[in-house]
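TL;DR need structure tokens for one chain.
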Amino acid sequence: MNSFISFIGGGNMARALASGLLRNAHPADRLCISDPNTEAREHFAASGICVLSDNTQALEQADIIVLAVKPQALAAVAHDLAASLRPEQLVISIAAGVRIDTLRRWLGGHSRIVRAMPNTPALVQAGATGLYAPDHVSADERALAESLLRAVGVCVWVKSEALLDSVTALSGSGPAYAFLVMEALQAAGEKLGLDSATARLLTLETIFGAARLALESNEEPSVLRARVTSPGGTTERGIATLEQAGLVAAFEHALEAARSRAEELATLMDQA
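>> reply
TL;DR here they are.
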């Protein structure tokens, strides 16, 4: 991909995407960042990326425009961009909770829009991103969007925009669930007598190792779990305790609650 890409907003996710693109040999002179913050502009300029403080100016050469501002600021930004957008430009929004119809309205009817829901591990090129585009977005445009987001991890397309709320609940919020599990394991290890540093290291390496093993295996997690759960052993006793405590149901309720909140926030944005 050698498209000219302009980022509106220079926050963490824009930094992650730009860094991933540069690692994949995308030319720095084919990237542009617009942000009012001087420090943010200096960060990108150090990599040879064009930096601007005027959002509309950033649209002039762009083939792809990535809207990387906070959801609550997107309406004002989009209204300012509307008159400068060209019909052929592809807009990719990574703002959570802003539906395509809402964004299209804010952008003065612009129709070439893809929504992306990345997550924070994109900061270390280990992200998981859900993508959705309406039927009128072409296969080539979808490929461009996917190519951009693959610079920071894996991508999956969902069949309906509503499913992005499920993606938000699972992978968007998921890193926080994983961190909570890490917290709990470390704290439990310390209660069993391990010092903090040892409990932390064992926790992180165990979670990392299990994830890597699952990624490199063709087996389902349930099969991998069964393989390390010897009948009558320590793991079986621990798993039984977690199941009795309602761990599976707790995760189901957590994802349902997160999805419901994503739907509520999208509705609020619709009314803006």
